[in-house]
């Protein structure tokens, strides 16, 4: 579904991504792991059209999306839940969800709204509440729900568990699995490596802008280097 080949991205003179290559097959959950500054968020921003690479190839279903504007990438089936949620704080929950469907002109928006409410019942209870007054967990639910309103085929998730209490982290990861079972392919960036590897089929480890390790999630979870660097084991 998604093929990334030899991606090089710069911030000015800083070489942020150094030949990153990976792929995501339809129906998978694939996770990108790595420490802060490894290039995970830069990768997602490049895939969603927010950053332009200097060189490299990004194919969605065999077609290049490198020169496609960000809003057109949404139309092609990729949505991005950014790090820090980036909801519209002054709009209500309902208005945020409606903004997620801004590229659509079909008759199924109400149906998809109900689908989001079925995944996140808390949002239905707070549909008229100003988004900036929600709890951190509720804001993360809203950010994911807003992305789902665009009917994505590939969902990019950047640190969905950041800043959340452990019980909410478990809830968010269960929801990610539910969304995947409903037919959405997921590329997950997450510093909680144990949780990410527990739900993913495959993973890639980024170090200083390059892919250092790759493999099945179970293999990475058992890798001594990964266990020491990302799972907190001595």
Indicate the topology.
Blueprint: E1 2-11, E2 14-24, E3 29-33, H1 40-47, E4 55-60, E5 63-64, H2 70-75, E6 78-81, H3 93-100, H4 109-119, H5 121-125, H6 136-148, E7 154-158, H7 166-181, E8 185-189, H8 193-199, E9 202-207, E10 210-216, H9 217-222, H10 224-230
Parallel strand pairs: 3-8, 3-9, 6-7, 7-8
Antiparallel strand pairs: 1-2, 1-4, 4-5, 9-10
Helix pairs in contact: 3-6
Task: Write the element-wise H/E pattern from the N-terminal end onward.
Answer: EEEHEEHEHHHHEHEHEEHH
Largest sheet features: 6 strands, mixed
N-to-C span: 37 Å
CATH topology of the largest domain: Rossmann fold
Arrangement of strands in the largest sheet: 6-7-8-3-9-10
Q: What is the share of helical residues?
A: 25-40%
CATH superfamily of the largest domain: P-loop containing nucleotide triphosphate hydrolases
- Give the uncertain stretches in residue-range form: none
Count of DSSP strands: 10
Would you identify the CATH architecture of the largest domain?
Answer: 3-Layer(aba) Sandwich
Number of H/I helices: 10
Average pLDDT reading: 92
Question: How would you characterize the overall build of this protein?
Answer:
This protein has 234 residues and is of the alpha/beta class. It folds into 2 domains: 1-77 and 152-234, 3-Layer(aba) Sandwich (Rossmann fold), CATH 3.40.50; 85-151, no CATH class. 37% of the residues lie in helices and 26% in strands. The protein is built from 10 helices and 10 strands. It has helices at 40-47, 70-75, 93-100, 109-119, 121-125, 136-148, 166-181, 193-199, 217-222, 224-230, and strands spanning 2-11, 14-24, 29-33, 55-60, 63-64, 78-81, 154-158, 185-189, 202-207, 210-216. It has a 6-stranded mixed sheet, sandwiched between helices. It is globular and about 45 Å long. The termini are far apart.
């Amino acid at each position: 579904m998604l093929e990334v080949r030899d991606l090089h991205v710069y911030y000015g003179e800083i070489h942020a991504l150094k030949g990153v290559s990976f792929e995501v097959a339809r129906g998978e959950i694939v996770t990108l792991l790595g420490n802060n500054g490894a290039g995970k968020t830069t990768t997602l921003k490049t895939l969603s059209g927010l950053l332009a690479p200097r060189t490299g190839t990004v194919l969605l279903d065999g077609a290049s999306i490198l020169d496609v504007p960000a809003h057109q990438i949404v139309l092609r089936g990729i949505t991005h839940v950014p790090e820090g949620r980036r909801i519209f704080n002054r709009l209500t929950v309902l208005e945020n969800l409606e903004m997620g469907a801004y590229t659509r002109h079909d008759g199924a928006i109400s149906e998809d709204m109900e689908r989001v409410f079925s995944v996140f019942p808390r949002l239905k209870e707070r549909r008229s509440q100003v988004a900036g007054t929600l709890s951190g967990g509720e804001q993360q639910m809203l950010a994911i729900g807003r992305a789902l309103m665009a009917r994505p085929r590939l969902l990019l998730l950047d640190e969905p568990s950041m800043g959340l209490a452990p019980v909410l982290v478990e809830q968010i990861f269960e929801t990610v699995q539910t969304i995947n079972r409903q037919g959405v392919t997921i590329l997950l960036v997450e510093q909680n490596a144990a949780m990410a590897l527990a739900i993913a089929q495959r993973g890639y480890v980024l170090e200083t802008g390059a892919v250092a390790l790759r493999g099945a999630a179970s293999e990475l979870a058992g890798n001594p280097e990964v266990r020491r660097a990302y799972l907190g084991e001595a």
